[in-house]
Specification:
Shape: elongated
Radius of gyration: 21 Å
Distance between the termini: 50 Å
CATH topology: 2-enoyl-CoA Hydratase, Chain A, domain 1
CATH architecture: Alpha-Beta Complex
Largest sheet: 8 strands, mixed
Structural class: alpha/beta
Oligomer: single chain
Number of strands: 10
Number of domains: 1
Number of helices: 10
Strand content: 15-25%
Helix content: 40-55%
CATH class: Alpha Beta
Length: 270
């Protein structure tokens, strides 16, 4: 029975959605879905991205898994939704082709690392931290003091290394020279139409246009091949109650701030 199930998938298309900030939970869900695409031998994957980006390592693991899937013959087309920026771009460039809405917010290629200097506030309310550490930089980005010149230089080196990795991935994924990528990879954002002119996307269109392109690349019936969505996020218990959408949004924002704080991010943060 399992053999027939996998065989049937050979004429079908998978669909995976990446929505919201890319974090550890996103990575786990997407990688699990990608393994199912591989096991069921789907010939095509429609990857819908509506994300401002997120953590560096999680974005890299999804990117690497997509490249492995392509190496096994699966055609991958990314569809950019309302926003596909920073880490969303990094994931997208692992696809065979990218289709973007003309008004999609994309770009924001770069790295950001933020901490909180609460030293003046803590001093005013009489709170002091006592720190014992094994090395000079062990409490770097501690909220009770400002960064030293040496610490700032150390973190800048970290950011520069991560930035170089980002530029390399975009250049290789989009078949662009690194010098061209660096000319616009300064954190600025673009519309989908501008991104096409820069070579970041292949076509302008909606998700349906991306589905049709994926079908053509995999030699599937463009009219009859409908995608099978895998790896759907779990439904929340209270999501249908009045005001639940606002509460869910607030929860997502708080969780994102807590989970991503103090980490180098490939993320668009206005």
């Amino acid at each position: 029975m399992g053999w027939l199930w996998r065989r049937k998938s050979k004429r079908r298309m998978a669909r995976i959605e990446i929505e919201g900030a890319i974090s550890g939970s996103t990575r786990q869900r997407v990688l699990k879905a990608l393994r199912e695409v591989q096991e069921r031998e789907f010939p095509a994957l429609l990857l819908r991205i509506d994300s401002p980006g997120g953590t560096v390592g999680d974005s890299q693991e999804i990117h690497a898994a997509l490249l492995r899937l392509r190496d096994q013959g699966c055609k991958v087309v990314a569809s950019f939704g309302n926003i596909s920026a920073s880490g969303g771009v990094y994931v997208g460039v692992a696809a065979d082709a990218i289709v973007s809405n003309p008004g999609t917010i994309t770009g924001s290629i770069g790295v950001i690392l933020r901490g909180n200097n609460l030293s003046e506030l803590l001093q005013k309310i009489g709170i002091r931290f006592e720190t014992v550490k094994s090395g000079a930089y062990k409490d770097i980005l501690s909220p009770d003091r400002a960064l030293s010149t040496e610490e700032r230089a150390l973190l800048q080196s970290l950011i520069d290394s991560s930035y170089d990795q980002f530029v390399t991935a975009v250049a290789e994924g989009r078949n662009l020279e690194q010098t061209k990528v660096r000319s616009f990879a300064d954190g600025r954002v673009f519309s989908g139409a501008q991104a096409k002119d820069l070579g970041l996307v292949d076509e302008l269109g909606d998700e349906e246009a991306a589905r049709r392109l994926a079908a053509r690349l995999a030699d599937l019936d463009e009219e009859r091949c409908k995608p099978v969505t895998l790896g759907k996020p779990r439904k929340r218990l209270l999501q249908n109650l009045p005001g639940s959408r606002l509460l869910t949004k607030l929860e997502q924002v708080l969780n994102t701030e807590l989970e991503l704080s103090g980490q180098p991010l490939w993320m668009h943060r206005p």
